[in-house]
Amino acid sequence: MPIRTELIDELLKDYKKPEDMVGENGLLKQLTQALVERALGAELTHHLGYEKHSADGKNSGNSRNGTSPKTLKSDLGDMPIEVPRDRRGDFEPQLIKKGQRRFTGFDDKILSMYARGMTTRDIQSHLQEIYKVDVSPELISSVTAEVMEEVKEWQNRPLEEMYPIVYLDAIWVKIRDEGHVVNKAAYLAIGVRLEGTKDVLGIWLEKEEGAKFWLKVITELQNRGLKDILIACVDGLKGFPEAIESVFPGTQIQLCIVHMVRNSLKFVSWKDRKQVVSDLKTVYQAATEEKAQTALEEFEQRWNERYPMIAKSWRLNWTRLRTFFGYPSEIRKIIYTTNAIESLNNGLRKVTKNRGSFPTDEAAIKLLYLALKNLMKKWTMPIHDWATAVNQFSIIFDGRIPVK
To answer: How high is the pLDDT of residue 104?
Structure first.
């Protein structure tokens, strides 16, 4: 509904500086307060069925019964309002419901700050500094606690029947457990949909990263409707590939090359690292598997005397490393590394670094979930060159790509 220019002019006749509009007692706050109270009065009129002072109210069985004070927390600061009452006490306001202490959108601001890793104290200070609103730690906890129902629904939602690629990895978070701070693994699964967009399939917490728990995760994904994965990209955890294949026997496993290089460098002195990385690159960037094996032999001849564990590790894992050599370049660059999930993990580490530790598993899950929602907002476009990749998948995995 358009607002008359004359009304705007009347409201702004004493305007001189920005504080008159947005200050602690500025026009916006006064106007919002007045509109809220008038709207609540209109709701009560609708509830009673007659206007204030109308003769229709006589012997109606219910009437107005004054107001009750309430202070709302809002973007404009603490806002005192008067909420109308009826004599029977059955009036249920809709704009500001009974028990509601925050104006619409205020909770979203708390959740947005929490999702970016701000501590309770940071949020308190920010709301006081920007909005002149005092909030208690209990209020912040109650707002964020409501997220857990959303988490449970998200964690148990049905999945698509097929994800051509699934990335699986874990990050570590510190959580208090029986009076001690312990490291726990937060397991993450990212699926690439048939149209090429990414989706986080779930997040799970466990005291340590192990193949046994990954088996539980994979089984849960299956129980939620996932029937087929073409390629699973994983780190080098022992028993991990076998855990996946026991649930999805047709899935090809690709060990993350980045993880392999990173693990190889554990054996290398600083002065040799740059050259070792360069020589390993000739292995995993080879045009064919045959050329890659030749490059690995050359690497072994050059470095085996000083770092014998590197070539040995690559040979032991070669069966799982070689998968991407069987694919064209468009697919290779998508599956040879778990960078998709590594990037997500880096984003999660940024929001958890302000926390020395979490008081409970639930607190950790809550923050990780909100942070994930924030990060996933950027996932609007398909993976680069996905159209080419999915067409090649349909040839390589004949009959396994659903036709829509």
So the answer is: 61
